[in-house]
């Protein structure tokens, strides 16, 4: 009965009233009526003062702590955001610190749970993607060992297929290493000033045959006829541009498509976009296309030779440059991937970079 503010206030009120009355009784000529009045007043005042003090300063805050523990058990973090951090009450301040610490640890636990799910999915995806080229190459080699080597035509054809599977495996491993280095921060960007216009033209020259085979037109436009200089890692941005243009060529819904790269220089920045008139990306897939191994319409993407790592690498490279890739798409009308680069020098400490002279 004493584990609340009223019980404690009653006990203390009685003690204070009795002590006060006993001291007053030592005074001469004090009537019994006066002693009773003092007893009642001292008890009432003590009770009210102690009860409200304990209720608002102690027991209410303890109740909030119990509520916090209940919310932790139910994984409800909205409770923490409702707490007031401006009070000077020392118990409230201590309570707030406990709540902040609990909230931080709860979020860390949730993040660890998400990472565990991501790790399992990633291992499953890697195992699946590596299994295909390994089994293919293994099958061709064992077929040859079982006697097919006697036929030179079959021998050459199977060796080419095995080599192609192993080349795909090698490319996948290198892509995974690139993503891992970018995520961990081990891969520094070698930023230099170079002509992005010239780089795009070189990429078009390299991919011209691939585009011609599908009767796809490669178009390039800029806001100026002069060079378009940027400060970036030339090799990695080249990787980004190549991936985006290859995807735009590869995932067309017809053989009369268009891939257009646009460079727009404005206010110390270069706005880069790669647009196509392909089959577009469904809305439910847009948020996931930059995940590792994720492919839109996997059966069709598989037939195109994709492994779902290209856009993941694009995302990490651009994030390392302090920017991100935006997507505008409409099913049946095409997609546009865009990002921004610096056209003026910037401080090295802004990014994990190493500046080199042009």
Automatic annotation (TrEMBL):
<keyword id="KW-0902">Two-component regulatory system</keyword>
<dbReference type="InterPro" id="IPR003594">
    <property type="entry name" value="HATPase_dom"/>
</dbReference>
<dbReference type="InterPro" id="IPR004358">
    <property type="entry name" value="Sig_transdc_His_kin-like_C"/>
</dbReference>
<dbReference type="GO" id="GO:0016036">
    <property type="term" value="P:cellular response to phosphate starvation"/>
</dbReference>
<keyword id="KW-1133">Transmembrane helix</keyword>
<dbReference type="GO" id="GO:0000155">
    <property type="term" value="F:phosphorelay sensor kinase activity"/>
</dbReference>
<feature type="domain" description="Histidine kinase">
    <location>
        <begin position="125"/>
        <end position="345"/>
    </location>
</feature>
<dbReference type="InterPro" id="IPR036890">
    <property type="entry name" value="HATPase_C_sf"/>
</dbReference>
<dbReference type="Pfam" id="PF00512">
    <property type="entry name" value="HisKA"/>
</dbReference>
<dbReference type="InterPro" id="IPR050351">
    <property type="entry name" value="BphY/WalK/GraS-like"/>
</dbReference>
<protein>
    <recommendedName>
        <fullName>histidine kinase</fullName>
        <ecNumber>2.7.13.3</ecNumber>
    </recommendedName>
</protein>
<dbReference type="GO" id="GO:0004721">
    <property type="term" value="F:phosphoprotein phosphatase activity"/>
</dbReference>
<dbReference type="GO" id="GO:0005886">
    <property type="term" value="C:plasma membrane"/>
</dbReference>
<dbReference type="InterPro" id="IPR005467">
    <property type="entry name" value="His_kinase_dom"/>
</dbReference>
<keyword id="KW-0808">Transferase</keyword>
<feature type="transmembrane region" description="Helical">
    <location>
        <begin position="33"/>
        <end position="59"/>
    </location>
</feature>
<keyword id="KW-0812">Transmembrane</keyword>
<keyword id="KW-0472">Membrane</keyword>
<keyword id="KW-0418">Kinase</keyword>
<dbReference type="InterPro" id="IPR003661">
    <property type="entry name" value="HisK_dim/P_dom"/>
</dbReference>
<feature type="transmembrane region" description="Helical">
    <location>
        <begin position="7"/>
        <end position="27"/>
    </location>
</feature>
<dbReference type="InterPro" id="IPR036097">
    <property type="entry name" value="HisK_dim/P_sf"/>
</dbReference>
<keyword id="KW-0597">Phosphoprotein</keyword>
<dbReference type="Pfam" id="PF02518">
    <property type="entry name" value="HATPase_c"/>
</dbReference>
